[in-house]
Amino acid sequence: MSAFLAEVVTSMKNKSIGYFYVLLAITIFAIQDGCSKYLADKYPVISFTMIRFWAFAAFVIVFAAFSPGGLLKAFVSRRPFLQMLRGPLLVLEIFIVVYAYTGAGLAMTQAILQATPLIITILSVPLLGEKVGWRRGTAIVVGLFGVLVILNPVGVRFDLQLLWPLAGALAFGLYGISTRAVGREDSAVTSVLYTGVFGAIVATAIGPFYWVPIAPEHWPALFALCVCGATSHFFLIKAYSTLTAVEVQPLTYLQIVLSVAVATMFFGETITINMIIGAIIVVAAGLFTVFREHRLGIK
Question: Where in the numbering of this chain does the EamA domain appear (predicted)?
Fold first, then answer.
């Protein structure tokens, strides 16, 4: 019995550390969003995204080198072409989302991005051959209704800038569905290594054409963005080493709270009641979908 109690205590301790890693990661993500918006108001998004991916690639190479089996083993993939595609997909998603910060706003963009788990579930049907029952189907419909509430199209001129966060959510969904596909056969280290390296290659192929010298007073924000990009992924990986996806996902929705705080405190954005109600609906639908997929054993 004492051995059983010791095992329970150890498990609880590990989970507590895991939850701490999640909270740390989403806090860093929120800071990262603030840095991205700050720089996007002054420079072409792809230019500093390129530097961000250089730092990310350097981090994942070192991280993989110190993982079991080393760098060469981490590069071995059963789905190499899909893995190579994920890096460019993430670059595209980051570009669209950060650009959306400048038009639709940080708070509005983050509210719409909460629909990403629902988009992944929708895409899993044609791309992964999964089946969506009436429960998850209902959750998807409710979640999409929540997105409409956020957009508030009734009696208001639809702003075309809102198409950017919608496109960002779709791009993030494609990245998520590809991650789910490779995750069935490759390790997390392999996935993050391919993402960083091939994302950096694609960003470097495009970024120089839009390069604008960074003013000295903006280098601290760029440095913070690079550090946040690496450390947020590190802590999220650490969290997944002790927690399941269904344990991590609910906490990640706290990022919208932190990002909204950054948007209102530092950028003077206004939060409307429809954004709050819509985000609550979307998050609730997303949580139901995540828990339902957990019950069905979908990875």
Answer: 17-151, 162-289
